[in-house]
Amino acid sequence: MTDLIQLASQPAVWAALATLVVMEVVLGIDNLIFISILTNKLPAEQQTRARRIGIGLALILRLGLLGTVAFIVHLTEPVFSVLGQSFSWRDLILIGGGLFLLWKATKEIHHTVDPEPAAEGVTGGTIGFGAAIGQILLLDLVFSIDSIITAVGMTEHVPVMMVAVVVAVVVMLVAAEPLSAFIARNPTVVMLALGFLIMIGMTLIAEGFGAHVPKGYIYTAMAFSAGVEGLNMLARRRRRTNRDGAPVPGGPARRA
């Protein structure tokens, strides 16, 4: 308790906490998009429970990994080399997670673009509850290891990391329902989110092979794409309003 009081009295610790919270929330966007897309494939009565379980597992994994910080740090040490390129366990985990994201996003794009299975009555785009939780758990593990290793590089105080993780997961829990509902209401957003997952998967693979990709570039591209899609949604809404009989901007009002 004395150590915690001493930490709380240091301005540098509060600055590190604020930075970590922002970083964890930003890194959690990737995880949240995947959870939202995956749980939307479940029956309506199971979706909320699956999101809460998925985000809860993310919290448990990250807090558990923080309890083994000394072991997690060693995951960055090289274990073997191929053609002069060294690979650590973290690299292998990132490559595996990236490949899984590429496979999953490509499969979901196929189900979205090709309507034949649905027309034939085959539920090709749906998954079981257990399969959804298993896939969420797999990506939770990948994103958790990456975020914890990043956090270790920013501060040495485990309590600060734990507070940042808890705050970030609470934000994810609050944002999960609105994000999932928004994606479900806007089919074009699903395709955009799947494109994000492909980009994130490629980034994980690149980092696994030792190529550092600044996260700022990735999230700037995502924000720009989301902004363009937002303008498209606004334009579609205005066209629908005009077709339903609302006055056209700059033109005469229609008579009833």
UniProtKB/TrEMBL annotation:
Keywords: Membrane, Transmembrane, Transmembrane helix. It is found in: Membrane. InterPro entries: Integral_membrane_TerC (IPR005496). The keyword Signal does not apply. It comes from the Bacteria. The chain crosses the membrane at residues 12-34, 55-75, 87-106, 118-138, 158-176, 188-210, 216-235. It is a multi-pass membrane protein. The keyword Transmembrane applies. PANTHER family: MEMBRANE BOUND PREDICTED REDOX MODULATOR, SLL1022 PROTEIN. Belongs to the TerC family. This is TerC family protein. The lineage of its organism: Bacteria, Pseudomonadati, Pseudomonadota, Alphaproteobacteria, Hyphomicrobiales.
